[in-house]
Amino acid sequence: MVAQQRVVRSGGSGAAGSGGAQPRDVPVDREYLQTVLLELLRTPSPSGRTDGVMQYVGERISELGIPFDLTRRGILRATIGGGAGAVRRAVMVHADTIGCMVKRLQDNGRLEVVPVGSHSARFSEGAHVTVFTDDPDRVYTGTVLPLKSSGHTYGDEIDTQGVGWDQVEVRVDEPVETVRDLLELGISVGDFVALDASPQVTRGGYVKSRHLDDKAGLACCLAAVKAIVDARATVAVTAQLLVTIGEEVGFGATHGLAPDLAEMVAVDNAVVAPGQSSREETANIGMLDMTGPFDYHLSRRIHALADEHGIPVRRDVYRHYRSDVAPALEAGVEARAALLGFGVESSHGHERTHIDGLVALTRLLAVYLQSDLTFSDWDRHASGALDDFPSTSVQPADLEPVDRTVWAEAGAEG
């Protein structure tokens, strides 16, 4: 059977949409972006203890005049422009970070901890931390140390001890030497231990900090919304900004999404490392991660928008990676999905990015929010007829030849 050429009713994978106002590359308030980023970084929010950072995010969104609400557990849902009609687009970003939790009060007055989220004890050694007890007025500082932390005591053994969470402990900055001392401070098993971010911005524009994943992405989202509001730009499709609180432990965007989405874009870190294409100075588009390929058309549509507006962008593939898109798709959301990222060196470790890359990502988000859906007619419906399906006209797949084998003629020399 010969495959028929399907006709797309409006637009193609790189089309602007239904003929409305074209997206504009609106100015980005760099000072706002940097200020919000540093304030987010200095607000502790390990997965499971995120109410404080959501209060901050809500206040920033209120200042922009954007309507929003919060779910029972604290996911924030803001609605951006687009006029009447259903919410068809979502931009998802998470406010939670990696951290630790007290597992045991030790006889020496120190704390055994376990990780919250996936990260190595190697990068926690030497970290300054904040210990949150159940009493909000009793908060303590401390340091994550190897069990053998003094070269004057252990000599070369400090270089040969193992790496792992059973090889570190938290030294609390209080006069404690026993379990009883810790209990008297109000410290208990199950208390959260936040790794201090300690952000720095260098003269060259690099940002060094823990928890750039995903505080930098969240700052870009807020700055993109501000850029649209300040420029009075037209948002072609009503969009939802979903700020999640459990991405680092695997259940970020499992709920809170609008019911009739056609597109969803996760904003998260892009891995900068040997063998990766992502850069700190550019916006980055993830084409595939450990859960599979992202949507063919939406990913290329966003890349086309970047090219059209001169926004520096790279495409990349990530092997050991998962974002808010994965739990949303696993929860049954039937929508195109894509991943945008800011480049991060040493993710979940001693992280670094660059202001230029954050600005590029902010610009791309603002342009994307002004654009129409990938297929302006088709994507507005949950289903449709095959005759309207944008198939071979935008994603051709010719039939393989019936037989590719070439037999040598009889008697021919080998």
Automatic annotation (TrEMBL):
Gene3D superfamilies: Peptidase M42, domain 2, Zn peptidases. Keywords: Aminopeptidase, Hydrolase, Metal-binding, Protease. SUPFAM superfamilies: Aminopeptidase/glucanase lid domain, Zn-dependent exopeptidases. InterPro entries: Peptidase_M42, Peptidase_M42_aminopept, Peptidase_M42_dom2, Peptidase_M42_hydrolase. Residues 1-25 are annotated as: Disordered. CDD domains: M42_glucanase_like. Transmembrane segments: none annotated. The keyword Transcription does not apply. It comes from the Bacteria. It holds the Pfam family Peptidase_M42. Residues 11-20 have a biased composition (Gly residues). Belongs to the peptidase M42 family. This is Osmoprotectant NAGGN system M42 family peptidase. It comes from Kineococcus glutinatus. The lineage of its organism: Bacteria, Bacillati, Actinomycetota, Actinomycetes, Kineosporiales.
